[in-house]
Structure formats: C-alpha cells, structure tokens
C-alpha cells in the first residue's frame, strides 16, 4: 500500500490490522500510548479467576492489568503489522501517513500505531448471562426480538469481537488494505515418470543408439531438472521392436 514518508511515496506491505497485546504495548514509549482516552488491548485479564475481562490502556498511557468487562465501552486504536519496514529504512519513532491523512508511528515489533483512537466500542456487546449446568452463556441482541447464544468465554476473543468488526470496518472505509500475512515459498519436488522418443536416421542399431543418446542429452524437458534416463527399446519405422534392454 502506498504511504507518504518525509514527502516521498513508499510501498508498505501491511500483513495485518489488529490491536496491541499487553506485551507489545509495554515496549511502546508511554508518551505514544497516552491519548487522553481509555483504549482496548487484546490481552485478557491477568487475574486467573477473571475469565471474561480484557485489558486496556489508561488515558495517561499506563495499563489496567485487572481488566474491564467487554461490555463497557472503550476506544479502539489500530496497529499495523508491516513486513518491509527495514527494507524501506523506517525505524522506531518514524511517522508516515496513509490515505493522505491517517498518521502512524513505527513501534517495536515491525508495527505502526495509529496516532489516535478511531471509535468508542464495546469489546463485545451482550445482554446478560444465564447458567446452563456448569457452563455460562451470554446473549447477543439481534435487534429483531431474538437473541443469539454464545459461550461466555468468547467475550474476550478478539477475532469474534465487536472491536475487530469496528477495526475492519474502519480500515475498509479509510482504504487501509492488507496484503496477507506474508506467504512463504515452498518447493515441492516430484519424481516424474515419462517417456521420450528420439527419431534418428542411422545405418545400423548401434549407430541409432549412439545418435539417440546425443539427441536425448540435448533434449528440452521444460522445467524438469536432474534428468536421468536410459534407452530401453528401439523400434523401426514400421513399429517393429528391434531391441529391448535387459
């Protein structure tokens, strides 16, 4: 995606648009984290007894390590994961713009943090809990008088959260596009079974085999490599079998 850095256009490779984890956020200078608002991280509460809360950043850039209920509104602050920052010569603290107006700052971990929050959004909305034996469930209000049940454990699952939906919608609306998560190259090697026929004009069988070998060695087998083969039969022009290898 084309970005602007120091007045020049650069092509950055965005592999993912997401939220910071606590571990990632702890490596970011506090002055970059402080935007005067609460905003979501994607890390769960550090309290082992709390199975639903998500952590967030306080207005002063400090962290809430107890967690907050996903149903309580906090803002969202996207982060870009970028695969070619070093190739472009961008270092931590450098800033660039996307789509002409969104400003991002390079942070540790080959990422760039948006300079402000984009929305006030619950991590996941829900209408309440209900006990089903030993498993606790939540209910989404579908807006038509019906409700959808889901496990309470999904409240802090970012991939299923309202926060992710909001980030994805904002990115789409503002033209921030990913290029996938950096596919790796794999080389699958085949053993190919094939037959090659060399047509030659010769005085006898021995000469035919010799000329055929020269033709075989110089033959073009396309992308195949390490070609190995031996003559196994000779036919005449009437398809009569004159010789076969033992």
From the structure above, extract its key features:
246 residues, single chain, three-stranded antiparallel sheet, alpha+beta
Describe this structure in words.
The chain is built from 5 helices and 17 strands. By secondary structure, it is α+β, with helices and mostly antiparallel strands. It has 2 domains: 2-125 and 158-173, no CATH class; 187-246, no CATH class. Strands 2-1-9-10-11-8-3 form a 7-stranded antiparallel beta sheet. Strands 4-5-6 form a 3-stranded antiparallel beta sheet. The longest helix is centred in the last third of the chain and has 13 residues, at 205-217.
For the residues shown, what is the average pLDDT?
84
Please estimate the helix content. Answer: 10-25%
Report the sheet with the most strands, covering strand number, pairing sense and barrel closure: 7 strands, antiparallel
User: Which secondary-structure class do the elements indicate?
Assistant: alpha+beta
Query: What proportion strand?
Result: 25-35%
SSE diagram, text form:
Layout: E1 2-5, E2 8-11, E3 14-18, H1 22-25, H2 30-33, E4 39-44, E5 54-57, E6 63-68, E7 74-76, E8 79-82, H3 85-88, E9 95-98, E10 102-107, E11 111-114, E12 119-121, E13 129-132, E14 135-141, E15 147-151, H4 162-173, H5 205-217, E16 233-235, E17 241-244
Antiparallel strand pairs: 1-2, 1-9, 3-8, 4-5, 5-6, 7-12, 8-11, 9-10, 10-11, 13-14, 14-15, 16-17
């Amino acid at each position: 995606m084309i970005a602007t850095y120091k007045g020049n256009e650069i092509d950055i490779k965005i592999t993912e648009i997401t939220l910071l984890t606590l571990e990632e956020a702890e490596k970011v200078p506090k002055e970059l984290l402080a935007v005067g608002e609460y905003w979501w991280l994607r890390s769960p509460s550090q309290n082992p007894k709390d199975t639903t809360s998500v952590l967030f950043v306080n207005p002063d850039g400090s962290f809430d390590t107890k967690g907050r209920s996903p149903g309580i509104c906090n803002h969202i602050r996207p982060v870009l994961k970028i695969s070619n920052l070093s190739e472009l010569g961008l270092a931590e603290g450098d800033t660039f713009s996307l789509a002409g107006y969104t400003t991002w700052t390079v942070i540790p971990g080959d990422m760039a943090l948006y300079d402000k929050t984009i929305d006030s959004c619950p991590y996941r909305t829900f209408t309440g809990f209900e006990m089903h034996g030993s498993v606790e469930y939540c209910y989404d209000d579908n807006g038509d008088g019906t409700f959808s049940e889901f496990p309470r454990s999904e409240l802090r699952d970012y991939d299923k959260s309202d926060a992710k939906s909001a980030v994805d919608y904002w990115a789409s609306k503002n033209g921030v596009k990913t290029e996938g998560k950096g596919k790796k190259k794999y080389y699958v090697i085949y053993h190919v079974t094939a037959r090659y026929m060399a047509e030659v004009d010769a005085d006898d069988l021995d000469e035919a085999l010799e000329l055929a070998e020269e033709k075989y060695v110089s033959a073009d087998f396309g992308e195949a490599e390490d070609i190995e083969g031996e003559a196994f039969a000779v036919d005449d022009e009437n398809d009569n079998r004159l010789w076969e290898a033992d």
